[in-house]
Amino acid sequence: QPTRLWGGRFAGGPADALAKLSVSVQFDWRLAPYDIAGSRAHAKVLSRAGLLTNDELGSMLAALDDLEAACASGEFKPTIDDEDVHTALERGLIERLGTLGGKLRAGRSRNDQIATQFRMYCRDHARIVGRLFAELSEALCDQAELHMGVALPGRTHLQHAQPVLLSHHLLAHVQAFSRDASRLRDWDGRTAYSPYGSGALAGSSLGLDPAFVAAELGFDGPVANSIDGTASRDFAAELAFVLAMAGVNLSRIAEEIVLWTTAEFFYAVLDDAYATGSSIMPQKKNPDIAELARGKTGRLVGNLSGLLTTLKGLPLAYNRDLQEDKEPVFDSLETLETVLPAFIGMMSTIRFNTERMAETAPLGFTLATDIAEWLVRQGVPFREAHEVAGACVQACETRDIGLSDLTDADLAAISAHLTPAVRAVLSVSGSIASRNAVGGTAPDRVREQLADARKDVALQ
Ligand code: ARG
């Protein structure tokens, strides 16, 4: 007897080539626990509608428990003849219950089943990924707290720009990750509706209660429209986007770790447990975690664009194209679930070379803006102040000295406004302390930011 869920109107079985093309159990078997949870809720709703006796419901639930345990232990496995997870599990149920197992399929379709189970899987795994991002943010907050007061040259165009606190820089990444976390929460709110009961597309006729099933499966309610319930996959595409965006954010800090661990920067040293060596060059210590995080972001972006392309132009309602929705999303979730623990370990154990950072903080004339702004406070128009500070930089550059090496006479020769009092702002710590408006790099502001970030992370 074939395990197929269809066949009555066909003269024979499918061609081998079709079966091979059609099969999805190799990837949708991940959904087995959700399929069984759905079956349990569906059995209950059938019994509430008077379509299963209490005894039948009891046997059905016991068989589902047994099947669930057999799946978990690996004792029950899908075979190559099982087209998909639903087919395999119906086979398992019938092996346990005989003909009674055939009653469970009433009033449901694989179309509403798959849409529901996929949502459940995504919601669970999005929560796992969200927790991992929260852990990463926590590790960055810990580093920010530990290094409060350490300055480094902030950069634009990768060129030295203005000195900032290392903590401020690390917390900038935390801000991005907390937006990713909030996108995941928003996404979950939109995805919390169950398509179960939508049937093939038109809804179920057997007096089944979709709201009951939705509540059993942890949803906020049933979908409002059965066609939409079975046809829509924007929840999958949106999740793929949120994950791709988070991956892109991760790739930006990853790139900085790659740069910071070079001999030229020498801003950070990786812990041995989170770095790799070379098979030929004995001295090598490579930042593979950061590189893999950066590289795998390509998959996340590809998964998003592949899925959107699959969805584009599909007529309502279900089309078999939709079977292509799962692998990209599974891959994005699993990629981040693999990358993040390593990345968290790397960021919690990385050692920052704070002396080197501090030493390079004033290099590249990073205090030039402070001279211009000091002049503004003396009443000089910024346009002129900018020119004067620029002339200071030029004078230093030709003589290969720093701004603080200019003598009183040098300063006076550049502009009568440049009295020796300007020296007060020619220090990295003075510059950092002066940027004390909300969001700035002044130590008090950064401490407030850290406290807020910690509160936000605790809510994730
Ligand atoms: N395996 C399908 C999917 O992933 C679900 C089954 C629906 N199949 C069908 N012929 N209506 O979308």
Automatic annotation (TrEMBL):
Q: In which pathway does it act?
A: Amino-acid biosynthesis; L-arginine biosynthesis; L-arginine from L-ornithine and carbamoyl phosphate: step 3/3
Under InterPro entries, the record lists:
Arg_succ_lyase_C (IPR029419), Argininosuccinate_lyase (IPR009049), Fumarase/histidase_N (IPR024083), Fumarate_lyase_CS (IPR020557), Fumarate_lyase_fam (IPR000362), Fumarate_lyase_N (IPR022761), L-Aspartase-like (IPR008948)
Membrane keyword on record: no
Looking at its record, which EC class is this enzyme?
lyase
Record-linked CDD domains: Argininosuccinate_lyase
Q: Which UniProt keywords apply?
A: Amino-acid biosynthesis, Arginine biosynthesis, Cytoplasm, Lyase
Highest taxon of source: Bacteria
User: Domain named Argininosuccinate lyase C-terminal: which ranges?
Assistant: 365-433
List the catalytic activities from the record: 2-(N(omega)-L-arginino)succinate = fumarate + L-arginine
Report the transmembrane regions from the record: none
Q: Family, per the entry?
A: Belongs to the lyase 1 family. Argininosuccinate lyase subfamily.
Q: What is this protein called?
A: Argininosuccinate lyase
Q: Organism, per UniProt? A: Fodinicola feengrottensis
